[in-house]
Amino acid sequence: MKLYKVDAVVLKSREMRDADRILTLFSRQRGKIRAVAHGVNKPSSRKRGAVQPFCYSTFLLYRGRQLDSVNQCEGIEAFPGLRSDLDRLFYAGYLADLTDAVTMEDEVSEELFALLLTIFYLISRDEADIELLVRAFEIRLMSITGLRPHLESCVACNSQIEGETVGFSSGGGGVVCKGCSGAVEGVRFLPRGALEVLRLLLQWDLKKMGRIKVSPRIRRYLKQVMQDYIGYHVEKKFAEVGFWEKLYEH
User: Fold this and answer.
1) Taking CA atoms, which of 42, 63, 146, 165 is between 20 and 30 Å from 217?
2) Distance of alpha carbon 27 from alpha carbon 37, whole angstroms
3) Is 83 within the bounds of a domain?
4) Which residue range(s) make up the domain with 199?
5) 9/24 Cα distance (integer angstroms)
6) What is the pTM of this model?
7) Rounded CA separation 49/39 (Å)
């Protein structure tokens, strides 16, 4: 069928011509889609509100030879809280960029769609612990895409991790015991508490993330670990360079 309907989050929106925009959508039903919204920049356009970045909308799309086109669209949730300050806007852009980088067109992942939508809802709230929610998104995204770090035992010898200091290797794919730290590439040492929080971020109810008490010191380690891990694996698998760096320069 030429016409099809999807519920989607707008990951990106860029000008094509004076009144048109090219959208990158991440949909529940069909995964990532690139589509043209004709005339959407006109002040009189009814589509204008529903195609803004980070909006969750219903789209009726017309399948084209190269790009599909937006026939109709209606907003479901605009997430005004994401635009309430620069930090939230920045993080929303980062999450959208990361989702775009790890997905292929027409590759469906209802789990990833639900994760992105949930995180957008949560970080738009005033009481949100945005930093922890972003870390939770990162590590769960890695898990969904088959790149989950191994956190249960040493990646080299499978022994249990002991002691208050833990080795972690992005290239090795997870935690490393002291005995193997010299034989695994790029080992970074971190407090055991950081490992425990990483495990929690994979399992804890996202809506209750604010209940986890994490010191500024542990947060710095989490940020460094995820920066290295995403940088190593996402660049290697998806050939995307630099999109995560803006978060860690923030």
Assistant:
1) 146
2) 16
3) no
4) 129-149+182-248
5) 9
6) 0.91
7) 13
